[in-house]
Amino acid sequence: MAITPKFKPGQLVRYGNPTHDLVGLVKSTQFARRRGDPVFVLVQWCGKYRQQEEYIPQSELKLVEGS
Questions:
Q1: What are the structural domain ranges in the chain?
Q2: Cβ atoms of residues 23 and 13 within 8 Å
Q3: What is the pTM of this model?
Q4: Are 56 and 44 in contact (CB under 8 A)?
Q5: Is 43 helix (H, G, I), strand (E, B) or coil?
């Protein structure tokens, strides 16, 4: 498991929820405290959701590629 974040603030990421995909903007990242702990990413979701920002493990996010 990674200790350093693979995303940078300002990047768009996708969270693959079983019901629907969410797209959000990376606001900040946290390094893992020790080996084996997940790296968390603070994501601000696009659209109207009850929870505008939340920390998500980086392993559950994918980078949105531009065309």
A1: 12-63
A2: yes
A3: 0.80
A4: no
A5: strand
50 residue type, one letter: R
Asked if 43 contacts 61 with a C-beta cutoff of 8 angstroms, the reply is yes
Residues 6 or more apart whose CB falls under 8 angstroms from that of 61 comprise 7, 13, 14, 15, 41, 43
Model pLDDT for residues 19-38, shown as the tens digit of each residue: 778 899 999 998 887 787 88
Distance CA 52, CA 67 (A): 26
How does pLDDT run across 45-61, given as a tens digit for each residue? 988 777 899 999 999 99
Strand ranges, E, within the chain: 12-16, 21-30, 40-45, 53-57, 61-63
Q: Computed from CA positions of residues 1, 29, 6, 51, in that sequence, does the dihedral angle turn out positive or negative?
A: positive
With a CB cutoff of 8 Å and minimum separation 6, the contacts of 9 are 26, 27, 28, 29
